[in-house]
């Protein structure tokens, strides 16, 4: 930021700061607001404490428990008169968006961050809470107990009852990694009973259900976001739970571990929900979801995640309006084929975000478009079967740049064996590309983007074992920092480069990421700095 623009920023009216903050994605708010508080006394007084504590992310048991217990002590001293006189007398009363990410050792011995959170709610410490995200998973501590029924990680129904009674402004709830058994009770009926909710996201295991199912008949009436990733140890949930279900304001539908058994019934569901703007069908979504899909269905669709097979049906009808597209299970050249051939005109003019998961092996059966290839002039050649295997090379990325000229973020999951110059020359065709995520393989049978990355010390989570030098490929950076710098020097619009082991996720827990600091706009890289690893952000501004 230049001296003049920084001075102008410091002179902004106080009432504009909350407006600006509301336009920031959740993942950026805490660090930006903390930095603003340190800018100068005037801005500090504007943003602290209300805006600094508006959006809070707690990571790890130590930070979460310490912070929550401090907030409890403050909230317990507050009286009703204090609230009337001072507005938000406790720091916790400023919190509107809270994310808790933690790993709790089991069997549990003593109080946890979840206990502290429950107490903070019970002492009226989160009266203004609007959204709550809990990404808490159990970690076995390596010990055994004679009584196997001892304390395990469960979210008691009393917690959700407290949320309902003590957080009157709560609109959005996201629960991840929780087993859903409370003895004979289940999580989702308690969540669905909070009728003011507009967004429900549940990711966890349905334990001991009579059959893998979920009852959607009692959803809150104003729900606009439904995200379900629940599975009963291997059996997917039948899509018939959606049949006959009408959610009047549904805007976002995200499903995983589901299968469709009746395509005609699903067509009725799509017709009943023309307001859907974001549809994500995960890797474990099977069956015929779009057979006989008709023109005019899903007219407002802007964000789509689906398999290559589903994309063959959908893209001819929805590609022109798409802002974001993520494709699962593409083989060889199917990615560029779907964009350049299946999509009308071969161009997606509104597309700003693209993710492609490419299966490393050849398909056991012929796949439409898997042998497609074009040159820079647009001449199309179908290669011989013996040469059909396609990696993420310069030619592949060149075709993507023709299909999505306005792309701002790109995620590629699969392997590459091309030169640095070829890769960066093609990436430079994207005049607006800011964020690049190169995911490794989805399992140990697939190859990472750069073969050498399997030997990086800071990418040990990939766990492929040692790769022999003769298999390093044409470009073999010794460390991630080198790869980030080289890619950013070759593609001068990049602001961030990320390497992960997950596709289609926002938060890449084991990923590596570097923010690019340049000597000047569009100039060479001055330095790369460590930052939080994130996948594609567009469309996920209200997620952690």
From TrEMBL:
UniProt cross-references to InterPro entries, sorted A to Z? LRR_dom_sf
The protein depicted here goes by the name F-box domain-containing protein
Question: Origin organism of this chain?
Answer: Hebeloma cylindrosporum
Output the lineage of the source organism. Answer: Eukaryota, Fungi, Dikarya, Basidiomycota, Agaricomycotina
